[in-house]
Amino acid sequence: MMEYAIGVLVLLGSFFAVIAAMGVVRLPDVLVRMHASTKAGTLSAGLVMLGAAMWFWDLSVTFLLIALVLFLLLTAPVAAHMIGRAAVRTGVKMWTGREE
Questions:
Q1: Alpha-carbon distance 95 to 100, whole Å?
Q2: Of 65, 53, 58, 47, nearest to 10 (Cα)?
C-alpha cells in the first residue's frame, strides 16, 4: 500500500514539473515565466522528495530531504525576486496584454 502512495507522490511531482516546463515555454514574458517555474517547480520538487523520504524510510535520508526542501523554499522566492528585479531594471520588454 505504501508503494501506491509513493507512486502517486512521484507522479504528482512529475506532473507539476511538466506544468512548470510548459509555463516556461508558453508564457509571454520573463515575470510570468519566472512565476510558473518557481511555484510549480518548488511544489514538484517537494512532492518528489516526500516520495523519496517515504521510499527510503531512514532518519538520515529523511533529514537530508527535509533540509533540501527547506533550502528550496527559502531560495526559490529570493532568486525569482532578483531575476524579476534585474529584468525590470534592465528594461526587458514586458507583455502588455495584447498580441504584438
A1: 9
A2: 47
Who contacts 24 (Cβ-Cβ below 8 Å, separation ≥6)? 33, 36, 37
Strand, helix or coil for residue 100: coil
Q: How far apart are CA 19 and CA 47, in angstroms?
A: 14
> 65 exposed, middle or buried (CB, 10 Å; 0-12, 13-18, 19+)?
buried
The pLDDT of residue 37 is 86
Rounded to two decimals, the pTM is 0.81
Q: How far is CA 49 from CA 26, 41, 59, 68, 89, in A?
A: 27, 12, 14, 8, 35
